[in-house]
Design a protein that fits this description.
Blueprint: H1 2-20, H2 42-53, H3 73-81, H4 84-90, H5 107-118
């Protein structure tokens, strides 16, 4: 029994030390986005986000089982209009239907997409 305690005690101490290194800086956004000047538009603000985060699967033709393409304004605006775009990006990583599957977008990016939708998803 003493031998088990001698083994487990350092392991427990190491675990506690590792957990205490977490800080608020770990929760900060990975990517800061500039506030848009004027209304948020697909061409100026949203297209680059979609291209870098969605087109690995939602290309034309689609890959990895994606059910639809998001390669142009028309395709993205359909998803914005029916609410599926906002629902998917606002889910937590690991939830069914959360997008992108590689991990949740930074909150500032989600907020920008939601602002674009709220403002009527303008193209230009």
């Amino acid at each position: 029994m003493k031998r088990n305690v001698k083994f487990l005690l350092p392991l427990l101490a190491l675990t506690l030390i590792a957990c205490t290194s977490d800080g608020e800086s770990d929760l900060e956004e990975m990517e800061e986005m500039e506030e848009p000047n004027g209304p948020v538009t697909y061409n100026a603000n949203i297209r680059a986000i979609i291209n870098s985060n969605c087109l690995n699967c939602h290309s034309d033709p689609t890959r990895n089982g994606a059910p639809f393409s998001l390669t142009d304004f028309q395709q993205v605006s359909v998803r914005a209009d029916n609410g599926s775009l906002s629902r998917a990006i606002n889910k937590q990583t690991g939830d069914a239907g959360a997008m992108p599957p590689s991990g949740r977008l930074p909150q500032t990016t989600i907020d920008l997409i939601d602002q674009w939708i709220d403002e009527g998803f303008l193209e230009q």
